[in-house]
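Appendix B. Chain record.
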Amino acid sequence: MRTASRYPSSKWRRPLEQVVHFNRFEPEQYRPQELVDHYVHEVRSFAMYRPHERMEDWEDFEERAGAFAPAYTGRVTNPDPAS
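Structure tokens predicted for this chain:
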């Protein structure tokens, strides 16, 4: 028997505001390599079978997201594109 957390509709996804663009490059939505590496090594394996669509609903959200919590949950993934 499958649990609800295995269905794609219940898995964590980036907030829609991070995905939407209007035919232009938006530097503040660019994902820096540090964030990609953090997701791959620290978050991905824990995100796969969670029953929540919002990362903020995880009981260990602060531990998993670390310093990148605003980048995973807010509209802006790269608040300072110059760095």
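Further analysis of this model is presented in Appendix C.
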